[in-house]
Amino acid sequence: MSNKDRVEENTATPEFSKWRGILFPVHNFELKKFLPMGLMMLGILFIYTLVRDLKDTLMVTKATGGGAETLGFIKLYGVTPAAILSMMVFVKLANIFSKEKLFYVIVTFFLGFYVVFGFILYPLRDYIHMSADTIASLQASWPTLHWVWPVIGNWSYALFYILAELWGSVVLGALFWQFANEITRVKEARRFYSLFGFVGNFGLLASGTVIVICAGLAKKGDALGLTDTFQQNLKYQTGAVIFFGLLVIGLYRWMNKKVLTDPKLYAPGEGKKKKEKINLGFLKSLKCIVTSKYLLMIAILPLAYGISINLVECVFKGQIKMLYPDANDYNAFMGKLSFITGSVTIIVMLIGTNILRIFSWKVAAAITPIFIAITATVFYGAVMYENAMGMTATICGASVLVIAVYTGFIQNSFSKGVKYSLFDSTKQMAFIPLDQEMKIKGQAAIEIIAGRGGKSGGAAIQSTLLMIVGGGVSLSSMVNILGTIVLIITALWIMSVFGISKEFEKLTAEKASSE
To answer: Strand, coil or helix: what is 1?
Structure first.
């Protein structure tokens, strides 16, 4: 921010006290604009968290012949191509509909599918899915594809998994942030955007609570002799999805009618600079990264995070199934995980800025890989001990399976909390010393290559290992291999952080001396 901008903003915000300026720098008249946007993000994240936990429950505990081993195959061969296809469809629809109608069409499509699944497809699962005998026969005949057949055989679960993943990238990543970038002035964005994330994370707390309540209510069906109490749980949660989905649509409609017509809060094109058009395909993005040592090191950060967290997470979900084989119990545990993740994220977001202020970029950026390496080592160690001694083994009187699950619980929730507060911030800061062209093209290229590669890289490693070994081998039996890979990746990650830090300081000094 320039000195002129600071003076203008300070003179325009005399009512901000010191603490309000730090904690909630929003004018009273701006609440009409800020609160609906914050609540929209909360609602979108609520739905995303709820369907994300449901998709794991379905594939890990309910899919015939399935388990955590199927997740890598769905992510690599289902979610990745579907994400590419969805963006192509998004562009086509954007040329047909207005921005407002496009929002309604896409959100309604997702909500419609969740309703169809919860009230039609899931109740008909025994009629539309392959039988257990058919899946078992295919697994015996094609052992290399052992974990692929449950994905194909339980196709409606796999489809739900894919559309649950796409909700985050399409509705939050594209629709919400496109709308926010369109209606938010530059000066407002500096004050609003971090608060959007802060308010939005309360959606994780709300969804985690709702999941636990719905699972508990459904479990009461056991006393009534119901054959599948999870079906009732699914209906409860589908109702919650529809409620928050309609809330999001209503808030968006209200914004268009009440805020976008208020010249004090919105003036089309005001305060926005014309963005340089970026059109980088895969090959151009790859060339942009590999021709710059600095960008290559930055690209390693999201790539390493995506791969390492994925390699730990899938084994962790398999351990949860062993401890909580019942679908409702599994789902309730995932709800607790979401609640704690949201709580940790909110707390770490509050202290994250102080870490960046007090310590160097290198220290702040190294916290995430060091934390993941340590907790992953403890988690994999517990699983290896469990493999050697059996599930009934204990350490200091505690079940080794329980230790493994709750170590994974801590690893997963805190890693995501640190990622949202420190990892994302330090990654974006690394682009600051670059010139304008490299800053724009570098960020776009890394998003295309490293962003997608990190999400599918871990899935590719797991699915390849499972296919090479073949048969019904579990991920937990390969933790020695997966653990070694995670340690190598986090070591490269830390080396990249140190390399970036050195170049970051050098480029920052050069930029300061030239100004």
So the answer is: coil
Give the burial class of 177: count Cβ atoms within 10 A of its Cβ; 0-12 exposed, 13-18 middle, 19 or more buried.
Answer: middle
Phi/psi at 176 (5° precision):
-65, -50
pLDDT in tens, the chain (515 residues): 444 444 444 444 455 666 666 667 777 777 888 889 899 999 999 999 999 999 999 999 999 999 999 999 999 999 989 988 888 888 888 889 988 999 999 999 999 999 999 999 999 999 999 999 999 999 999 999 999 999 999 999 999 999 999 998 889 878 888 788 788 776 776 677 777 878 888 999 999 999 999 999 998 876 666 668 999 999 999 999 999 999 999 999 999 998 888 777 776 755 444 444 455 555 666 676 777 788 889 889 989 999 999 999 999 999 999 999 999 999 999 999 999 999 988 888 777 666 766 778 888 889 999 999 999 998 999 899 888 887 777 777 678 888 889 989 998 888 888 887 778 778 877 877 777 667 666 766 676 677 677 778 889 999 999 999 888 889 999 999 999 999 999 999 999 999 998 888 887 777 667 65
- Domains of the chain (ranges plus CATH)? 29-271 (1.20.1250), 280-515 (1.20.1250.20)
**Structure-block tokens of residue 231:** 């079906």
How far is the C-alpha of 393 from the C-alpha of 376, rounded, in Å? 20
CA angle 490, 378, 310 (to 5 degrees): 50
Distance CA 375, CA 409 (A): 10
Cross-strand partners of 128: none
Residue 398's beta-bridge partner residues? 395
Token couple for 465? 């290992």
Contact 342, 202 (CB under 8 A): yes
Q: Rounded CA gap, 441 and 454, in Å?
A: 19
β-partners of residue 394 are 399
Q: Strand 398-399 relative to strand 394-395: parallel, antiparallel, unpaired?
A: antiparallel
Phi, psi at 394, each rounded to 5°:
-130, 155
* Burial class of residue 372 in the structure, from the number of CB atoms within 10 Å of its CB (0-12 exposed, 13-18 middle, 19+ buried): buried
CB 473 within 8 A of CB 466: yes
d(CA 415, CA 341): 9
Closest to 255 in 3D by CA, of 41, 26, 9: 41
Provide DSSP, 332-387.
HHHHHHHHHHHHHHHHHHHHHHHHHHHS-HHHHHHHHHHHHHHHHHHHHHHHHHHH
